[in-house]
Design brief:
Strand content: 15-25%
Oligomer: single chain
Number of strands: 12
Helix content: 40-55%
Distance between the termini: 63 Å
Number of domains: 3
Strand order of the largest sheet: 2-1-3-4-5-11
CATH superfamily of the largest domain: Response regulator
Length: 340
């Protein structure tokens, strides 16, 4: 029997069980007696984690990152490491790539190093097949797990994310309201976050009473960091007869490729082609004109991840899910909305 079983049998939260084990004054006597009755009845011996990791703590957080070369994840790594260090916690990094077996090995490695908690960086860690997520559920029986920009319901797993669906809907709405008629949505990933973004595009089209043209929903399967490959992909689409007057990209790097395409064919941005990226990275400042992009509040998300992790470790009740609202940063690659 573990702390989750105690929580379930006593009808209280895991944090409440932890507070009882730590003799916290913030627990009523009735609740304390109820929890202790279950503990005494099953002979449960709490470990350091169950006590809130107040004992034998390694003061180390494990960070699992599928791709440290990705600009979004690299920025998240820097934010998380800095914020944890400010709280006197070291970070242990495991670069897992995106392979399921490698991700499992990464979790096993960090578990063997007795980290106090784990941060899974990105919705790539969540698989559609529930059985493939068993390694996350197992890890969460030992330490708290916080998921960056993904949603996963499981005891002792906490999610901090951006509302990607709403953000992408607003970005598509802006393009349509500015007079664009045929918006090409260019994306690279079909993970949890990618699916939410795609749903947002479809929602915006429906709100404008426009049909979804599947020829304008394009997945780019090649190396997304090859900006010239993105450019060439759009050139090929144009040669094949696909007409579009805007590009909405799921990541800034794809939007930069769209700007290269516009330069190659002589289309003026934003007069002849509007372009919107996603992540509001420094890449947005490297194009002419500068790139309009969705700011998904990554620094704030990372700060909340650290706050959530430390709150759980201290035995405080923390929200299972925190959702941030994105903001569209207007720059020169888009036109203003037209009067209706």
């Amino acid at each position: 029997m573990n702390i989750y079983d105690i929580s379930r049998h006593a009808g209280v939260s895991i944090a409440t069980v932890s507070r009882v084990l730590n003799n916290s004054p913030h627990v009523s006597e009735e609740t304390r007696r109820k929890v202790m009755k279950v503990i005494d009845g099953c002979g449960y011996v709490p470990n350091a984690f169950a006590r809130g990791l107040g004992l034998n703590t390694m003061k180390t957080i494990g960070l699992l990152c599928p791709d440290a070369a990705d600009p979004y994840l690299a920025r998240a790594l820097a934010c998380l490491e800095h914020a944890f260090r400010q709280k006197h916690y070291d970070c242990l990094l495991s670069c897992t790539n995106r392979d399921l077996a490698a991700r499992r090995q990464g979790v096993e490695l960090l578990t063997s190093r007795h980290v106090d908690g784990m941060v899974l960086m990105g919705s790539t860690f969540i698989e559609e097949n529930s059985e493939d997520n068993a390694y996350i559920r197992q890890a969460a029986t030992n330490v708290p797990v916080v998921l960056l920009n993904g949603s996963f319901q499981c005891p002792n797993v906490f999610c901090v994310l951006c509302d990607d669906e709403r953000a992408m809907k607003e970005a598509m709405n802006q393009l349509l309201d500015s007079g664009c008629k045929r918006v090409l949505y260019l994306y690279h990933s079909s993970n949890n976050s990618g699916q939410r973004k795609l749903a947002g595009c479809r929602d915006a089209l429906a709100a404008h009473n426009l049909p979804v043209d599947e020829t304008l929903m394009r997945r780019f399967d090649a190396d997304k960091f090859s900006i010239h490959a993105v450019r060439d992909c759009l050139l090929e689409l144009e040669r094949d007869g696909l007409q579009f007057d805007a590009v909405l990209a799921s990541e800034d790097v794809l939007a930069v490729g769209a700007m290269k395409y516009a330069q190659a064919v002589g289309r003026r941005v934003p007069e002849n082609l509007s372009v919107v990226g996603y992540n509001n990275s420094n890449l947005c400042l490297c194009t002419e004109p500068e790139l309009t992009s969705v700011d998904n509040r990554l620094p704030a998300i990372c700060e909340r991840i650290v706050e959530t992790m430390l709150g759980v470790l201290e035995g405080r009740e923390m929200p299972e899910k925190t959702v941030f609202t994105a903001e569209i940063i207007q720059r020169g690659s888009t036109r203003a909305a037209q009067d209706k």
